[in-house]
Design goal:
- The chain is mainly beta.
- It has one domain.
- Helices cover 10% and strands 36% of the residues.
- It is built from 2 helices and 9 strands, in the order E-H-E-E-E-E-E-E-H-E-E.
- The longest helix is centred in the C-terminal third of the chain and has 9 residues.
- It is globular.
- The termini are close together.
- The model has no long low-confidence stretch (mean pLDDT 96).
- This is DUF1203 domain-containing protein.
Length: 156
Amino acid sequence: MTYLIEGLCPDRFAPLFALDDAGLAAINARRVTATADRGFPCRISLEDAKAGEELILLHHTSHDVETPYRSAYAIYVRPGVVAARYRDETPPVFEGRSLALRAFDAEGMLQTARIAAPGEADGAIRDLFADEGISYIDAHNAAYGCFAARIERDES
């Protein structure tokens, strides 16, 4: 069994970078500058922005399903980056962070969940996918609760 983790598609966020601060505020988004090399995780590149880099902080629906488990929270995105793709390995943005792994069936219903301490994500993902009823896993930062990435079964 292999798994795939991909960053969000940059095309859907590109128009945000052309908005001024008032335009961003109108959609409850903010332009921010990273103040450190860690703590500003881009959901497109699946890497932390470096100090001085510009990002947009916005509200994002990460689990857009017609179930009680529909979920949305704030995420950061950076301009000019490509969507990351990791097969059978975890992205840099997972490193050093505790993750809440929420495992869902094909209908978007939560089946189980697990906390993975730093360095434990790969094993936890494989354990969760050992259950054939798990279609995908949403990873969230355990402390702040923000969406980190979707983890899919890789059937290729």
